Amino acid sequence: MTVLRRVGIRLAWFIGSLALASFLIFLITNKLPGNIAQVILGTNASPGEAAALEERLGLTKPFFTRYLDWMAGVLRFDFGVSYYSGEAINPLIASRFEVSAWLVGLGMLLAVVIAIPVGSYAAMRRRHADGVAVSALSQIGLAIPAFWAGIWLVIVFAVNLGWLPAGGYVSWWESPGEWLLHLILPVTSLALVQSSVLSRYVRSAVIDVSHEDYFRTARAVGWSRIGALWRHGMRNIAISLLTVIGLQLATLLVGAILIEQVFALPGLGSALLMAVSRRDLGIVQAIVLLLVWAVLLINFLVDVTYQLVDPRLRRRGELQ
Amino acid sequence: MRRSRSFLGMLLAVALTVALGACTRPETDEPRGRELNIGAATEPAGLDMITTTGAGTPFVLLYNVYETLVKLDNEGNIRPLLASEWSQTPDRLSYTFSLDPAAKFASGAPVDADAVVKSFERARGETAAESIRLKWAPVDTIEAVDQRTVRLNLSRPSNGLLYDLTGPTGSISDPTATADLNTTPAGSGPYKFVTWEQGSRVELEANAGYWGTPARFSPVNFRYFADPNAMNTAMLSGQLDMISNLTVPQSIGQFSDAEKYTIHEGTTDGEVVLGFNHANEALSDVRVRQAISHAIDRQALVDSVWGGKGMLIGSMVPPTDPWFEDLSGVYPYDPDKARELLAEAGYASGLTLRLRVPNLPYGPTSGRFIAAQLKDVGITAEVEELEWARWLDQVYGQHDYDMTVVAHVEPRDLGAFAAEGNYWGYRNDAFNTLLTEADTGTEADQTEKLKEAARMLTDDAAAVWLFLLPSITIATPAIAGVQDNQISLSFDLTTLAARS
Fold this sequence. Notes:
The complex is a heterodimer. Chain A is an all-alpha fold. Chain A has 12 helices and no strands.
């Protein structure tokens, strides 16, 4: 089977999943008890007032009419307006996405940068006390929820030492320095936990590689351990690491929701939580759809990347 | 080799620390200027005061961006604002307001009788929110007598009207504004609207051409926090100058350093009510309701769930309303009396009720506390936590509950017990008559009748009034003029000043 055909089949699955996801999301969000009209009016509303507002917001239209209206918008990449504030959802999501993308992207990057040397070190020194200590440390890191790490980082670095802001976000365009300062703590708290997870995978991957014949041969012809690992091992490690990173990106997106609450970051996660609690369904649907698409896209890309990284998964010469 | 690597790591750590220290240093040394950052919990649901309901909008805009003819001060008194004086005819069927000749909108257009009439007609028109439109019910015609004089002609006397005019109902918007008021407010206040980043902040700036005492801060940011803990840490780390109201009073100890923080405690309009569903057979019996009132130690409840902050009230009236009367002693904590009343009502062998509480800061904790105390007198309260929107749908909307706990934060909301189809299912014609008489009678009548009405609710044990939500404002010592009470819908910036 050619790579192109493989990719084609994956793409078809990908598009099918997207379509199904959109319907399920709409179905589930619309079956939530409670609605935006009641939330807007709160305990000040007369029964008639809530009904009138529902009517005005178009919530009384039949389910499929609303679904088709929504899908018509989605296909044009127009998510409509917020029931709550009347604001257009697209620009709102775009600005929120920027925050979340930086948070998750930098968090994952930092996690990988920490995990590869730490995991390799723990693997190569696995029969020594320091290697065991490193590995135990990562085990502890696994058990810590990111938001809890975040709360502690805030207490130490923002409240007690006063070095970094406790929360909030400043866009890169406004002030790159402030942007960095505001992201250090949230990115670190995400990355600390993630790097623990990843370093365990790196460790076992490195151990596997060091048992391989080619590694022993490389050592025998005079490569140093690090040299052999770098030259011959990394490509093999990369395969398993990529799978894990792909899976973990999805977890990270979810973990970021809590991190955004702790650091008062105006990202997708905090927008989602707020929209759910207000039953601002247009925003809920838009964000969940984007998150689902993002996860599907990540899986799709990981699948495709396998073909590129592992020469055994493609025939010689095809992609050259 | 290993040594050199770890040395390099250490060097990097030191360099990073120094660099970070250097980056943040100016922020702590230099004064903030006259910028003001206020932490708040409830975000606006739109910026048009007339079409939007909810507390978030007037909190930011009332008295700051929009003004009214008369305003409510923090002791509950009605004061002049855009109207320098007003009068009422002896038959109380007509109000005449004289507008301050200096008053003008941020656009430069004058606040004249024409602008007032247009704003009022809009507030009672089709597009207005029902809760606002209803407040105009006693008004028959609104006329511009001359450029500076406005007259309201009433179809029946109303004591509530002047008070209502101090809120969003009476806000005056700029008739020359062409943009949508829901996104671009246009008023005559000391501040102008700059931007609203949904989910994050609303920014105001000083209105340079303000007709009265100029604004003392600019810009002013209302920053919104979904998580109370995040708001506290923002204050503790110096990102905020004020917390408008501490959501979780138990955390007040974090601000005990008097050199860094001032704490202002006062009252609000928020009665935390243990509501009964009067459609429930057991709860339709006044003896059962009284038994429950006796079975709950309310002071212990406030101590346990609200850090001991919050005043005990015995009815639906906060102490800042003229008809307040301390009724908190009517049902003293007395489990024996409660058991006796239950036995009388025929529930000696026990009673099971569903207590469905919203997941707001006071909800689940109060619910568990109440359940424990009711168990003591033989009532099994099954506590169920509902997410807020679900609570609004099932409890408030569909009346699917036996007992619930919720704070009623609207000012002067005694009338909630008289409203048609209210979620308690409470109906008392004598009470309704008292409210009508209070609104149409003289001012002295009003106070007397409402006192009587409040007492009637208490005697009838229509609900249990657990406590009054406190107003706890935290500020840095650099901010002067912070008000203790939060009783108008506005977070009034005009009383604040920077101490030098």
